[in-house]
Design goal:
binds magnesium ion; binds adenosine-5'-diphosphate; about 375 residues; six-stranded antiparallel sheet; Aminoglycoside 3'-phosphotransferase, Chain: A, domain 2; binds 2-acetamido-2-deoxy-1-O-phosphono-alpha-D-glucopyranose; Phosphorylase Kinase, domain 1; 2 domains; three-stranded antiparallel sheet
């Protein structure tokens, strides 16, 4: 999937940036898009940009992804204190917000958030609090954004019953002959099927409002200031769509409240941390600034468990279908990722009462 040098140079040259291009190299640890760090030199002043090829296998209408981002970043810019607090699309020389190459792939460029870091593994509670605050504030800042103007860039993205249906189809088709080797994981997911509609049911009862949500709230989608480690900017805006606050909360927990990486092979290192859960809950509530309904706050543990088991079934579905969705580095990568998710689900179930007490404490 990585672009050749010639194509990269062509793409970079489309955008309205000044100075000589010093380098353009693959960057970051995302599972979806191709990300390139572009370094320029303008009379001795170096400047960085982020160039990305939108994954057209995942986003079937990439132009709609860019249109959503245009609207949301313009809305957030008015509320931001500085240019490090919001992504800005750099226009092309002919004034467009993206460039379409000869393969019909869509490329976009962003300002680089300077002197910042993002966390592939959360090392302490304070950093996680900051990530939570950033996503909570994002929710609060967008609460008056007109949700009906957004395209649904991936339909039913966090609709777990539909994800479960896709998982069952992949098990039945068993395209790569991998199902026999993962019976235990398949049973784990099937045993919990009564749970998968609980958020949709809560929405139907009026307990869970639809909001503008980020839908991919991993800690490596928040930039923190390198020195102060305070939250600066929420990135990876491709999946902004109407959704539930509890799934934004939950996706962050599944990724960040683990004591190990998402693809840790040694499951004895993978634990659900109640300390990190507590820190994130506190930070998210503070960031949201009291704008959540009590009923949705009480459903946050369900959001965490739902996102974790949903992600587990998504990784397993991709494993069964031959690894066509998530980027993988070795043949069992999606299976390894799925196993960490299922381990976390088990430990969330063991800690269920404590999770409920924690969210009640901060309500
Ligand atoms: P993906 O959808 O593949 O996860 P992201 O948009 O999250 O792509 O980008 C991948 C990584 O690139 C991020 O985790 C972050 O490290 C880095 N990155 C992306 N955008 C920026 C930016 N504007 N400034 C600094 N780093 C960025
Ligand atoms: C993908 O793009 P990235 O790496 O931030 C995926 C998320 C998954 C995540 C699992 C568009 O996120 O939904 O939760 O991997 N993004 C998309 O790590 O499918
Ligand atoms: Mg990302």
């Amino acid at each position: 999937m990585s672009a050749n040098k010639e194509l990269l140079e062509k793409c970079v040259s489309q955008f309205d940036i000044s100075g000589e291009i010093k380098s353009a190299n693959t960057y970051g640890n995302g599972h979806i898009n191709d990300t390139v760090l572009v370094l320029t030199n303008n009379g001795g002043i170096e400047k960085k940009y982020i160039l990305q090829r939108v994954n057209s296998n995942v986003f079937k209408k990439p132009e709609q992804v860019i249109l959503n981002i245009e609207k949301v970043t313009a809305f957030l810019k008015v509320r931001a204190g500085s240019e490090r607090e919001v992504l800005s699309l750099i226009p092309t020389k002919d004034g467009s917000t993206f460039f379409k190459d000869e393969n019909d792939d869509v490329w976009r460029m962003y300002n680089f958030i300077e002197n910042s870091i993002c966390l592939d593994i959360v090392e302490n509670e304070q950093d996680f609090y900051e990530c939570a605050y950033a996503f909570g504030k994002f929710q609060r800042d967008l609460r008056h954004f007109p949700a009906d103007t957004l395209y649904e860039t991936i339909p039913n993205f966090h609709n777990t019953p539909i994800r479960f249906g896709a998982f069952l189809s992949a098990v039945n088709a068993d395209k790569c002959g991998r199902a026999a080797g993962i019976k235990e994981e398949i049973n784990f997911i099937k045993e919990r099927q009564d749970f998968y509609s609980c958020l949709i049911d809560a929405e139907a009862r009026g307990e869970l409002p639809l909001r503008v949500t980020h839908n991919d709230t991993k800690s490596n989608n928040v930039m923190l200031d390198k020195t102060t480690r305070k939250a600066l900017c929420v990135i990876d805006l491709d999946t902004i769509m109407p959704g539930y606050s509890v799934t934004d909360f939950g996706d962050a927990i599944r990724f960040g409240a683990s004591t190990a990486a998402e693809d840790e092979k040694d499951l004895s290192k993978v634990h659900f941390s109640m300390e990190l859960f507590d820190a994130y809950t506190k930070g998210y509530m503070a960031g949201c600034g009291g704008k959540l309904k009590p009923t949705e706050i009480m459903l946050m543990p369900e959001g965490a468990k739902m996102m974790t088991i949903e992600c587990g079934m998504r990784f397993l579905t991709d494993y069964l279908e031959g690894d066509t969705y998530f980027k993988t580095s070795y043949p069992e990568h999606n299976l390894i990722r799925a196993r960490t998710q299922l381990k976390l689900v088990e430990e969330m179930e063991e800690n269920w009462d404590k999770m409920k007490e924690t969210v009640a404490k901060y309500r």
